[in-house]
Structures are given as C-alpha cells and as structure tokens.
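To illustrate the input format used throughout this study, we show a single complete record. The first block contains the structure-token representation of the backbone; no residue identities are included at this stage. The design step must infer an amino acid for every position from geometry alone.
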C-alpha cells in the first residue's frame, strides 16, 4: 500500500510547490487553477482503482478505501501547511487572502493564521475528496475488473 501512495504524494507535493511559485510570480489565475491538487484528488483514486483491479493479494475495495482516505488526508495536510506558510510569509496570492478565504490580511490572529482557518478550510476538502475519490476509484476498479473478467471469459471460449 505504501508503494501505491508514494509517487502520487510526491507528484502532489511538486504540484503544490509549482502552484505557489506560479502564484507568487504573478501567473494568470487560469494557469494557477489548472495547476492544482483538486485535479489530482479526482485522478489519483482512478489510478488506485485501475492498479487494484489487477491485484489478487489485497482486498480491493477495502484497500481502495484506505488509499483514498490516506491520500486525501495527506494532500490536505500539505495544503494546510501551505496556508500556514502563507500566513508566516504573508504571501500575496488571492487564495491566501482573507477575502479569498485564506489567512493573509488584517485582523488574522496567529492561531487563526497558522491553524484554525487552514484546518477548517480543509475539512470540506477531505470529506469531499474521500466521497468523490471512492466513487471514481470504485467505478474504475469495477470497470477494469469487469473488462478483465470479460476478456478471461472470451479467452476460455476461444
């Protein structure tokens, strides 16, 4: 299970770093939106489902659930860290501003900037990521499993 999580988490960390660099260097919002972890939170569970469809040694749906939950928690902890860093370094990207739901601006206390606001912003994304990830991952797992079963049946007939 660790090996399935390793590369998606490394890629996610890279995407987070690239997005922060793009935002702080003044890249257009359209580019910043494309370079985001939300896309990965949709694609990685599909990857998990496709890989697990070929597995015979692990309980597939249970393993998928564990992977999706762990992945969602880990990436959201990384994003939480980026918001905390935004507070410390007073980053200027719109998503980090108080008006954008972030932590940079007037009246933000240290506790709010480092923990409360980033954590509360992430609760929705963890829950949503798990629900959507399970739906997409389960669909890809089921589709790949059925496709494999259909191929096996066809080969047995031939």
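Output of the design step:
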């Amino acid at each position: 299970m660790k090996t399935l999580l390793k590369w998606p988490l490394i890629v996610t960390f890279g995407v987070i770093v690239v997005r922060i660099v793009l935002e702080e260097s003044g890249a257009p919002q359209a580019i910043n939106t494309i370079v985001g972890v939300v896309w990965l939170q949709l694609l990685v569970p599909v990857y998990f489902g496709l890989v697990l469809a070929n597995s015979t040694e692990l309980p597939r749906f249970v393993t998928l659930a564990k992977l999706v939950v762990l992945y969602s928690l880990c990436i959201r902890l990384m994003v939480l860290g980026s918001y905390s860093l935004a507070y410390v370094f007073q980053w200027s990207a719109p998503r980090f501003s108080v008006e954008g739901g972030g932590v940079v601006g007037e009246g933000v206390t240290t506790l709010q900037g480092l923990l409360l606001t980033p954590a509360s912003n992430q609760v929705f994304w963890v829950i949503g990521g798990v629900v959507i990830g399970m739906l997409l991952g389960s669909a890809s797992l089921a589709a790949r499993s059925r496709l494999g079963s259909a191929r096996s049946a066809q080969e047995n007939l031939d």
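Structural context for interpreting the output: The two ends are 36 Å apart (CA to CA). Helices lie at 2-24, 29-34, 37-53, 60-89, 110-157.
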